Each structure stands twice: as C-alpha cells, then as structure tokens.
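Worked example (supplementary).
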Amino acid sequence: GAVVSQHPSRVICKSGTSVKIECRSLDFQATTMFWYRQFPKQSLMLMATSNEGSKATYEQGVEKDKFLINHASLTLSTLTVTSAHPEDSSFYICSASGWGSNTGELFFGEGSRLTVL
Amino acid sequence: AQKITQTQPGMFVQEKEAVTLDCTYDTSDPSYGLFWYKQPSSGEMIFLIYQGSYDQQNATEGRYSLNFQKARKSANLVISASQLGDSAMYFCAMREVYKAAGNKLTFGGGTRVLVKP
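After joint prediction of all chains, the assembly is encoded as:
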C-alpha cells in the first residue's frame, strides 16, 4: 500500500519556540493532506485540510496563525506549531489521499508526538 | 450531535474468541463510506476495512468483517479468532462524499480492546 511518512516522530521543545512537522507521501501524489491532533486517550480531531498549492482550510476553533500549514508540493505538507505552549503537547498525525484509490482510502503517517516543556 | 458513536470505551476478549465492536453513525448524505482503523500503542493508524454506503454485501478482510446495517445506521466490526496482537484502540470513521471536502474523515471516540491469553 501507499506510504506516508512523518518526521520527526518525537519532539521536545521549550515553551515559546516553533516546531515544524513534515508529512511526506513516498510513492504517490497526495493532492490532499489532512492534519489531525490526538490528545491522550482521545480520538483524532481534524485540524485542517490542505490542498496542494492552495491555502489550508481550518476546522472551527483551530487557530490558523498558530498552526501554519504549507502544502507546496504533491508529496510534502508541513505543520508548524508557532510559539508552542504546554497545552499544545499532543500527538499530531497526518493523512494523505491521492490518485488511484478506489475507496479513496486515506493513508496515515506514523504520527509525531510533541511535548512542550 | 455525534456523527460517529462508539459506545464501548473498552473491552476484554479471550484469545481465539470473536469480538464485536459497535459503531453507529449519523448522516443525511446519501453517499458515504465507513472505515475501521486500528491504533496500537505506537500510534500509527492501520486501515482495517471499508464499507461503502451503496455496497450490497458486508465487507470482509481476513479476520475482519463489517456488519453493515444501513437502516439502523450501524457498522459494527467483528474480529474473529482474536490474537494477542489485536490489543489496541479501534476507531470507526465516516467519510461523507457530498458534505465533506475531499476525503475528510470523522472519527468515533474509539474502543480499547485488550486480548487476554
């Protein structure tokens, strides 16, 4: 199946710094990428949808200035958590969809665990 | 109103026995898809099975089968012959074709399964 890779898998940063998480589709062209956040023992909550070459669409309640999403190519989307605070500590996971899937299956990255001290 | 409801927060199952995970959904979209994902402690999301709203037969994938009851708006996952490696969180998700952009998924709250030897 298709492969989506996220990097880094774990990151620890100081409060006030910015952190960038990358999501890459390795063997297909991802026209759309989704960013989810998952707090411990909770479900995945969609943060934003990004389409290659256009601005991301954010879900209600998600601060677009805090969570910057860039989808500059068909294989790479980035999520930057700006001025991170401890409450931003969470598991961030991306998914991608592209051409050629009958079910429109989403392929998920491995996730990135962010800890803000 | 919750779009995807998983009423079982956690459950135990004896190794080699079958287990049914409940999922009910709510949508007015005539075309939708239902997914089940497994999330082990590592965090990755593993696709298990898919059911389209117009599919006449219940989906099956190896030890996984989906009991799709459209009139009741339920899409229960059945895992047969449970194995220790099946211990994980299981998420039911829905994609609404007309209402959702691209392949956006809405997730249920999840069910934690623990397989006992």
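Two points are worth noting when inspecting this output. Residues 20 and 55 of chain B are 21 Å apart (CA to CA). Chain B has no helices and twelve strands.
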